[in-house]
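As described in the Methods, two query proteins were run sequentially through the folding procedure within a single session, without resetting any intermediate state between them. The first query and its resulting structure tokens are shown here.
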Amino acid sequence: MNTDNRYHWPHKDLLDVTQLSRADTLHLLDLAASFQEINSRPVKKVPTLKGKTVVLFFVENSTRTKTSFDVAGKRLSADTFALGKSGSSLNKGESLKDTALTLQAMSPDVIVMRHSSSGAARYVADLLPCGVVNGGDGWHAHPTQALLDCFSLREAWKNSFEGRTLLILGDIAHSRVARSNIHLLTSLGVRIRVCAPRTLLPAGVDRWPVEVYTDLRQAVRDVDAVMCLRLQLERQQAGLLPDLAEYSRRFCLGLEHMALARPGAGVLHPGPMNRGLEISDDMADAPASLVLDQVAAGVATRMAVLYLLATRNDGGRA
């Protein structure tokens, strides 16, 4: 494992990829690659964060992100404790501020937080002296998902971002994953296309640094990778789609679409997948699918994030 003692990590918190410089991003990805090697060992544990405490404060439901952070912390030998809304005083009417101050009184080194309200993680980070990681806030941001997607693409593209083209397909308007990925990947030189029904494109998307498509066959032509987004089924009830069958017919990614992409193009999905709706069964299980690579990348990337935040004040170890 290689941790570069010469690099000074400048951030107390990780709230959004917009705070990261290109150098920050590349350092974090290099560090994640070192931790990826640990995850391939027979004994997948190192004492790097022994004595450190990580609190997983998930007010909004999560399986993948919460479990990934829990595994990441444990593999670095940190003590991890999980708290959800149903098990916290928030469910009894306590304010977010008082809950956060109560957690801080227990002297955690890092709090990983997911909340349905955009800006909640920043509010807590401004309040507390410990490191805070945004595990997803409303439609706003999901920085570690973007970082793990970036890590997966860097491996698939053999460390080359410049000149690559990524298509993000699905519910762009309500996706914090899309927003974080668009910012992070464009900062590394990737060209981004988005494809969705007009009702699932955000207001002002024409001013985003993306090419906008509503026809999947046109959008997928000559891209280097496709990222499918989960279709939130509650949107269908809100009247933003005529029906799910029509959405599937026009926007479900299949093998026939990937035949139009560049040779070797991969497919990503943040999960959970709605098979047959956003992505076909054949496509989800095809060799081009990078979904399980993303899961592995998630643990390594989150190990890097926890390490950088938990050791930032330990005599320059990071």
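Immediately afterward, the second query was submitted; its sequence and tokens are:
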Amino acid sequence: MPIDAAKALAAEPRSGEITWDRRDVQLYHLGIGAGVPATDPDELRYTLESRLHVLPSFATVAGNGSPGVISGLSMPGVDVDLARVLHGGQSLTLHRPIPVEGSATATSRIAAIHDKGKAAVLVMRTEVADADGPLWTNDAQIFVRGEGGWGGDRGPSARLEPPAGEPARTVEKPVREDQALLYRLSGDWNPLHADPEFAKLAGFDRPILHGLCTYGMTLKAVVDTLLGGDVTRVRSYTTRFAGVVYPGETLRIRMWRGDGSVRVAVGALERDDAPVLADTVVQHS
């Protein structure tokens, strides 16, 4: 079996130094659609260096750009075909606001492996800290088709009860035709998002948008709409990738207020609101 669960879970964590600066932050923000309209004061907080603050989802690309998916596939005990891999979900916990420029130590390991029968799910955990202490913790759920069935633990269910009532806010965000090409410049070079031939090998008609690009676009919509544009209020952000987005489509983002949280559902408008992000929660102050 290409995945040796015992070996992967027992492997020593990998640590490395990461750095980022304001250009990395600005490029990431542009990659998730910030800057429209270009002179809007609210958008300049994401694009102009003199006013810059950092959307917390930048943590998924800070330093080396890899969201944990590609790096997770190179861990001991893991040897799988990239064409069978999908990003199943993402969880981010913020320990304090992310600085515009910084250097830190990122420590990664396989935290869990779940047997879903027809697939395996690897949980790649990355903990990042600088000289002042912990900054953030990322968990990437890596879905590998055809690698389950060895009798392992199925793991917890990520499914939540649907939000009750009508959403507090609904916004629609267009995805540019070149969105994936711009987003990948932040470091996620998976050819699934750019190469039509590779996309066909993976079972798609054409390249799809990075799930983490949708993830960032959605968090920005929540911050701008319900959190007064204050990125420092975000405490954690979790989602399950329920479907794909094709560049050129429109995201319909529905938001429900809770006690210190926002529930979110995202669909592809042109495909009758086909689910894109589900079981999505933003915890905030």
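The beta strands are 14-20, 85-94, 102-115, 119-130, 133-145, 169-174, 234-241, 250-257, 261-268, 274-284. We note this only descriptively and draw no conclusion about the first query from it.
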